[in-house]
Write a structure and sequence with these properties.
single chain; alpha+beta; three-stranded antiparallel beta sheet
Length: 136
């Protein structure tokens, strides 16, 4: 059988296919890396929201609505990373996590905002705030 009659790919076709494959793999690696970082940021946001909600629930359960404003203004629920990790909270904290509470409406109902701040990866400051009204 003559080599000129055999069918196959030329060297240039193989090089073009290899280039397309390499470009596809490089873009897939970039996509996977980006998805991993977005996943981590969303996980941190979920944890922060749960911690802020936990503090709001504690305020609702442990404070008389007429006393909430004075306790919040006194900093009773302003918490640091060390306080969140210790008893009675025992929460797994985020990097540099802190909670600040503020009253946005006095009286009955009393409006409270819980702002949770932390340092995300790449040293980017992040925060989430939840608000509620507490009434008798």
């Amino acid at each position: 059988m003559d080599w000129r009659t055999k069918k196959g790919f030329t060297l240039s076709e193989l090089m073009i296919a290899s280039l397309i494959l390499a470009l596809t793999l490089v873009s897939m690696i970039g996509l996977i890396t980006n998805l991993a970082s977005v996943n981590e940021a969303n996980r941190d946001l979920l944890i922060a929201t749960m911690h802020a909600q936990y503090v709001l629930e504690e305020i609702k359960e442990n404070a008389n609505p007429s006393q909430v404003a004075s306790l919040v203004n006194a900093g009773h629920w302003d918490l640091t990373t060390a306080q969140l990790a210790a008893a009675p909270y025992n929460l797994t904290t985020l990097s540099g996590e802190s909670i600040d509470t503020a009253v946005f409406q006095s009286g009955n109902p009393c409006g409270v905002t819980v702002t949770l701040s932390w340092v995300a990866h790449a040293q980017r400051p992040r925060s989430v705030a939840l608000s509620t009204l507490i009434a008798d």
